[in-house]
Amino acid sequence: MSAQPITLPRPAANGRSCAKFDCLFGAPELSGPSVPFERNSEIYGEGEPADYVYKVIRGAVRTCKNLSDGRRQINGFYFAGDIFGLEGDGEHAWSAEAVVNCKILMVKRSLVMSASQRDAEVGHGLWAATVQELQRAQNHALLLIKSAQERVATFLLELAHRLPCSSAVDLMMSRQDIADYLGLTIETVSRTLTQLQGTSTIELLGARRIVLRNPSVLDTLNS
Amino acid sequence: MSAQPITLPRPAANGRSCAKFDCLFGAPELSGPSVPFERNSEIYGEGEPADYVYKVIRGAVRTCKNLSDGRRQINGFYFAGDIFGLEGDGEHAWSAEAVVNCKILMVKRSLVMSASQRDAEVGHGLWAATVQELQRAQNHALLLIKSAQERVATFLLELAHRLPCSSAVDLMMSRQDIADYLGLTIETVSRTLTQLQGTSTIELLGARRIVLRNPSVLDTLNS
DNA sequence: CGTCTTCTTGAGCCACTTCAAGGTAAGTGG
DNA sequence: CCACTTACCTTGAAGTGGCTCAAGAAGACG
Questions:
Q1: Which residues contact B183 (CB under 8 A, 6 or more apart)?
Q2: How much is the pLDDT for A204?
Q3: Is the shortest CB-to-strand distance from B207 to strand C under 7 Å?
Q4: Is B8 exposed, middle or buried (0-12, 13-18, 19+ CB in 10 A)?
Q5: pLDDT in tens, B45-67
């Protein structure tokens, strides 16, 4: 957990991030150390004080909640360039875990808050990041009323959109992660992927690499 | 749609609103007219420019989306004291409709934005309102992975918490509204309510008034 | 009182879950 | 390099919770 020169990662593929807020994370006085987290390790737990705001430098993070009866819901996935851990009050409503080995930038929440008080533009950036998170949450809710095929299609398109362009989508997360994000079982996720492959809509290169052979079919399912 | 003296309504029952942001809506230079909307009339449509921010003075509002195949999702309900219509970019992602006859306060979005630039405290209030909306959206997603009983129980508890205290919860919205909010059909909502009445957990006083006879049972379902 | 809307109830069906078994890939020690 | 282990993924068969279709009951309103 040693401090080190901050090298800003490539911005998210879809360019959703705000320049000034990114700048906040790059500004020398505010940047914290870039910390490695091992696959499946907890970054913070539900109910813990939210003392930091986080940015993914490399890897992938999931935010989730374990329900009393053993079910789990994954609220979202975060990839290189994404910010997570922003909370209204000082307590994390979700826990965060590394999906794969990660490098995470940590910035003191108090610094973010005071900077946004001083600098209206930074404040606006903070607000924009929150609004973006709101839209993601609303789209997630919208996803959860759809059929299994539609959920998987939407998920694949979202990934393809957010991850760096490449011939195949690199999943990183397990079937269980996908299932808990989509509100399905792993069996249904697996069956749906097989089914989409059967119609030549996608092609599975091993379990964790997927080529979108016919995105327009996925778009139709998504709409 | 004539301008009239602004009389601030009683604050939301749960006191979630921010004093300074409320103040924004009460400040003379920012307050717009209080406008009546008839039951089921559209306040704004999906995709329309977001020129205003809204506050419910009296009545109830739903924000919703109509999917291409005729399904509808309701994103949320807003009651006296609640703010809605806040958007990141200048376009409404959801449409808003009056559930019953309403009085709605409209404030120019540009005024809100410029005020939050000038005054850090107002800016913080704007952010807090957005964070609250984010939490609501996340809880909504959490709701949608549960069983019908759990969804209905959570919904009833949320209503009881947000609406002014009274012996019975006054529903205002139709079974179809509830169904579209919970991701169920009207039949399932109706059956679930009947079933909860059968176990003496609730009591139906007509279709739109419900007494929570045993909230602890609902709490158990909610957890 | 009749009409229209909304809500409830019933019966059958289907998409997804559950339970169970087998396959695949990556790592580990001999 | 290969046997063994372990974690993960796929596939099958049966079960079920909520949906669909259909009819009737209860209110709301002129």
A1: A144, A145, B73, B144, B151
A2: 97
A3: yes
A4: middle
A5: 999 999 999 999 999 999 999 99
Using a CB-CB cut-off of 8 Å, the residues of chain B touching A94 are: 138
Residue type, B179: A
Please tell me whether residue A56 adopts helix, strand or coil conformation.
strand
> What's the rounded mean pLDDT across residues B81-88?
94
Q: Tell me the two tokens of residue A166.
A: 């490449």
Q: Which single residue is written with the structure tokens 């129980």?
A: B153
Nucleotides of C under 7 A from a protein CB: 6-11, 15-20, 25-26
The Cα B28–Cα B5 span in angstroms is: 9
**SS3 of A81-135:** CCEECCCCCCECCCEEEECCCEEEEEEEHHHHHHHHHHCHHHHHHHHHHHHHHHH
pLDDT of residue B33: 77
Cα angle, residue B136 at apex, residues A63 and A133 outer, rounded to 5°: 50
Distance between CA atoms of A174 and A80, rounded to whole angstroms? 18
Neighbours of B49 (CB within 10 A): 12
Q: Nearest residue (Cα to C1') for C5? A: B174
Instruction: Read off the pLDDT band of A13 (50, 70, 90).
Output: very low
DSSP element (H, E) containing A25 = helix A19-26
Please tell me the pTM assigned to this model: 0.92
**What separation in angstroms does the CA of B178 have from each of A82, B186, B220?**
34, 8, 21
Residue A147's contacts (CB-CB under 8 Å, 6 or more residues apart) are none
A193-206: burial string, b at 16+ Cβ within 10 Å, e else: beebeeeebbeeee
| Spatial CA neighbour of B87 closest among B110, B70, B67, B66 | B110
Give chain A residues 146-205 with Cβ within 7 A of strand C: 147-149, 183-185, 187-188, 191
Distance (Å, whole) CA A32 – CA A53? 10
The span from the CA of A68 to the CA of B7, in Å, is 44
Give the end-to-end CA distance of chain A in Å, rounded to a whole number. 44
